[in-house]
Amino acid sequence: VRAVDTTRANPRQRQLIAAWSEVRALAGVEMLLSWDQETMMPTGAAESRALQLAAVAGLRHERLTDDTLLATLAACEVDALDDPAAAALAREARRSVDRARKIPAELARSLAAARSRGVAAWQRARGANRFALFRDELAHLLELKRQEAAALDPVQPYDALLDEYEPGTTAANLEILFEPLERALSDLVRAVASSAGRVDSAALRGTFPVDRQRALGRRIAECVGFDFERGRLDASAHPFCMGIASSDVRFTWRAEEADFRPGLFGILHEVGHALYEQGLPVEWLGSPLAEAASLGMHESQSRLWENHVGRSVEFWRWLLPLFREQFPDFPCRRAEDVWPVLHVVEPSLVRVDADATTYNLHVAARFRLERALFDGSLEVDELPAAWAAEMRRLLGLEPTDDNHGVLQDIHWATGLFGYFPTYTIGNLAAAQLFASACSDVGGLGEHIAVGEFEPLLGWLRERIHRRGAWLSPAELVHEATGAPLGSAAFLSYVGEACRSLYG
Ligand code: ZN
Fold first, then answer.
1. Tens of pLDDT along 191-208?
2. Count of other CB atoms within 10 angstroms of residue 473
3. CA 475 → CA 94, 157, 419, 470, 478, distances in Å?
């Protein structure tokens, strides 16, 4: 991979990158406003924030659809014919410009405002544990997203949404990947339920003061390689990570005093995202190549650190002394004693707290529900009941209330339809990438066991982070692992844990 050398770029390419830097800066302002809304903003400011976000989104849309930019891009496409760096640059710019030009400016502004109001309504509904308080905003957002998708692709509107997050992916391709996976996972969950094996999860019970969890979480983030000079960690209702700029990567977490898992694994998850953002190619800064390849690739980084590193025996060899420093009453003395507790397979109601085996069944439910909402075969008012039916079918459980059911995720409230499948793509890619890293880097486990994360991070930097958006996500996985994305590595990862715990 050759860098986009801006000093060698011709004037037209420099002009494109200059225009792009401004578009990216405006996107950073939008992220900063959203970050503030989810971490700091007084609830009374919801309406003014919606207007601010709509104004900035309108500006960004204006810049992106500017005729001069289009002419510059067209000239760059001609220059790019025999230069792969210029071709990748033009291809990524073309993707965004074409999408933006198909969406009317008024719709772009309305969507930004509706997303902001959607989050505010979702937070109110969560506070009251009542879906009814979110219902109208959701219906409005869904209508706007339908208009957006139809403008992008009147024939396959849902695919147009998927394509924003996972370039090149279609619902039909995902069905082929997901259906056998769903069957295999359902079989596994049933086999575990009927097995005699039980894991004593007594170690999970206890008191884990939040300030101590925070101290430990920050230390872990630092040790795995997060640079706090170029980012920060804060609290929010729904954890997330935002690459506001390469020098300003912010991630959030939430903690529970009675259970250390949401806090610890939330930090490891989001720091995986954050390391990706901090590792994007600075030499391509300001160009559309200095972005993550896709959200599925993003999720592969978070799940790799959360599950393949964070739940491993090797990681706990390193972590346990630090953990017991903060929580001296923690009953496990050896990493081997912690491992089973972290691999319990247990159908549960909340996706973000789900174990690695049942997690993708939650995603399957949302993928099915959002397509039904989208094509009109499911009405917004029927959503809570349909949600409960999916949970019963896939996991044998029914939500006890709206917060543990239809209100648990923020995604639809911010207009993210077509986003959930990227979680499963990420889980599959994480397993495949980690298996490749283990075979490429000698003694990776021994490094992790003594808190040396640089060999793994270095491999990820080289194979994934520094590639930016140079390759499509499918090409990137293939290049890094020598095979197309599949579910074999993931199924072997969860299968091995199940066999060892449940026989
Ligand atoms: Zn994530």
1. 998 888 778 877 788 999
2. 25
3. 19, 24, 20, 10, 5
- Amino acid identity at 372: A
3-state SS assignment for residue 283: helix
Catalytic sites, residue numbers: 270
Per-residue pLDDT of 438-468, as tens digits, reads 999 999 999 999 999 999 999 999 999 999 9
Q: Which tokens hold the place of 351?
A: 């996706």
Rounded to the nearest angstrom, the distance between the alpha carbon of 473 and the centre of ligand 1 is 16
Confidence of residue 284 (pLDDT cuts 50, 70, 90): confident
At which residue do the structure tokens 């029914």 appear? 398
- CA 302 to ligand 1 center in whole angstroms: 6
SS3 for 232? Answer: strand
What is the Å distance from ligand 1's center to 73 Cα? Answer: 32
- In a 10 Å sphere around its CB, with 0-12 CB exposed, 13-18 middle and 19+ buried, how is residue 177 labelled? middle
pTM (2 decimals)? Answer: 0.94
**Checking phi first, is residue 248 left (phi over 0); if not, alpha (psi -120 to 50) or beta?**
beta
